[in-house]
Amino acid sequence: MDVFLQTLVAGVLKGGLYALIGIGMTLIMGVMGIINLAHGQLMMVAMYITYVLHLAGVDPYLSLFVAMPALFLLGAVIQRFLLNPLLKADTILPENQVLMTVGIGMVLTEVVRFIFKSDYKSVTTGYSNATFFLGNISFSMALVISFLIAIGFTVAMFFFLIRTDIGRSIRATAQDKDAAVLMGVNTGRITIITFGIGSGLVAAAGSLLAPVFYVFPDIGGPFTARAFIITILGGLGSTVGAIFGGVTLGLAESFGATYISMEFENIIGMTIFVLVLLFLPGGFKRLTKI
Amino acid sequence: MKKNLVPLIVLAVLAFFPLAVKDNYYMHLMILFLMWVVIGSAWNLIAGYTGQVSFGDAAFFGSGAYAAGLLSVHLHISAWWGLALGGFAAVAVGLPFGWICFRMRGAYFALATLALNEVMRHSAAIAEGFTGGMVGILIMPSFVSKVPYYYVALGMAVAAVISIQWIVHAKPGYYFVSIREDQDAAESLGINTHYYKMLSLAIAAFWTGVAGSLYMNYMGFIDPDVVFSLHDISIMAILVGIVGGVGTVYGPMVGAFVMVTVQELFRSGFFGLFKYLGTVTGSGTIVSIAETITGAHILGFGILVVVVILVLPNGIVGDWPKIRNAVFRTKPAT
Question: What's the pLDDT band for B277 if we cut at 50, 70, 90?
């Protein structure tokens, strides 16, 4: 029973971070209808920002305030100068934007590899390995803090989307771009802001993950994969769905690792992905309707 | 006859190439080029003509390569049998996948292919008893000389290009294009879009798988990270397609040529130019530039993707009037 509970706790804690990654992705996907395959790589950049600041003696959780604006800018620049021009280009394949994000991801990874080499770096803090116990269940201090911050961001994001003007414009653009333009929404600017926010959120996830994970250039790929599994699980463009998707993936990974085998951790995500597509196309969004 | 003149001349040059050039290095590059012509043409069929962009060509490439390798390891027959069976192994992977995933459209299908690629790679790495896991498969190459491989590759490329051209200009080809242009309209005209997308995928998977088995035979060594590589196979296949020109006849050939050259330029540090300059001038900076460039070929790929999509969204062949106009300052023909 303890093993079961322990696995459950680990899965939920990890799921909170995954939710943060998924929300950024689902926002971008919902508003622009494109899949951002550079998502994990943007997170990797944020992790390196955290790492550099850590070398300078800044706490990883404080470096959130540097990594998020930095990645917001990076995301906005990518959208403004690399992705938006593609909308006007006349081409056979509408998937050019997706390809473009693949290219951006490769460039980000390799530029980082250039600067920091392929070595595994770690951001060790006093609480990286600290744990506390509730009954027989151990909680990793760093993961719990990360989880709480991640939940905070998720809730804030939710209110931002529902209550503020920009949030409403973003949702309007996601629902119907042409109608949004007619209502006076500057959709070009909204796409830039959305990509920025998406990047900022994944940057937060990166900074929060840095203390509990290794930092290396190739970390982006697996997280891009996770981000799109979460998004497909939750339903495209659904914020609530992304939270469900993130927690589901976190749980599936930790239960798979405990009860099947560590090796299968990566395959479990893919299997869920295919199962969802088969039996629940549209993801959790179909069930929750949000 | 005039219409076929250019391809026939190219074919003749390619057929006599080994007689003129004995250098193993250039033979190697040409074999890679021919292999990429096959993969690029196959990708072009499914993505360029049918509009179903695949990010997971490596899944088919690797299936073909592993089919050849496993035949040799488990059944102790020549890996050349893989050339006959590898394509069908890839189809066996592709058809169930297509049956499930063709209900998705556009970018979501592309994602599913990406997932297929990853599943195949991890499966090949995990099933150690069957595939040898990360250790990979090593076989003895049948020939020392590269010439036999060259002619096999040439025959394969010619067969692939002709068969794909034939299908594109036959009735299914028009169905493919109609699916790309508007799937709902195609469906309403009575085209069984699911069936024709599967057909297109099967042909593309077949040729990619055959190319994979040739790779196994030629290289003599495969492991999951090599043949199921996202960057070196799947992305490369997409690049060959888009650099040359999506949905064009000669696009994949031009693309394969450009991409193999670019890959090699980076891998060899501009064919040793910087190293040469470094030793001549004795400058340590230039030598270190040479080393840097050699390590940066994925960066080069990434930049190339970005630049090509921004500047030439339809590829070299597709945007040829635009290039001609820019370079020679002539007016476009239309």
Answer: low
Please tell me which residue of chain A has the smallest CA distance to B302: A103
Question: Tell me, what's the pLDDT at B289?
Answer: 66
B104–A277: do the CB atoms touch at under 8 Å? yes
Token digits of residue A192: 């830039």
The residue-averaged pLDDT of A242-259 equals: 84
Supply the pTM of this predicted model: 0.81
pLDDT value of position A117: 78
CA distance A126 to chain B (A): 35
Q: How far is B162 from chain A (nearest CA, A)?
A: 23
Interface test with A, best of B45, B49, B249, B310 (most A CBs within 10 A): B310
> Residue B133: left if φ>0, alpha if ψ -120 to 50, beta else—which one?
left
**Scanning every residue of chain B, which has its alpha carbon at the shortest distance from the alpha carbon of A221?**
B230
Q: Where are the domains of chain A?
A: 2-218
Q: Which residue has the tokens 């290009």?
A: B161
Which residues of chain A make contact with B123, given a CB cutoff of 8 A? Answer: 267
Q: Which residue has the higher pLDDT, A168 or B134?
A: A168
> Which burial class, exposed, middle or buried, applies to A264 when counting CB atoms under 10 A from its CB (0-12, 13-18, 19+)?
middle
A34 touches chain B (CB under 8 A): yes
Nearest-CA distance B264 → chain A (Å): 18
Q: What is the pLDDT of residue B209?
A: 93
Least confident of A130-134, A144-148, A188-192: A130-134
Q: What is the pLDDT of residue B334?
A: 47
CA distance B44 to chain A (A): 11
Interface of B with A in 29-88 (CB under 8 A): 47-48, 51, 53, 55
Short-list B224, B63, B66, B220, CA closest to B133? B224
Q: B242 CB near a chain A CB, below 8 Å?
A: yes
pLDDT digits (tens, 9 = 90+) for B203-259: 999 999 999 999 988 888 888 888 888 777 888 888 888 888 887 888 888 889 888
Beta strands, E only, B137-291: 137-138, 221-222
pLDDT 10s digits, B311-326: 777 778 777 777 777 7
| DSSP β-ladder status, A121-122 and A214-215 | antiparallel
- CB < 8 Å to A103, chain B: 301-306, 309
DSSP A146-170: HHHHHHHHHHHHHHHHHHSHHHHHH
Of A31 and A92, more confident: A31
Q: Do A267 and B112 touch (CB under 8 A)?
A: no
Indicate if the pLDDT at residue B276 is higher than 70.
Answer: no
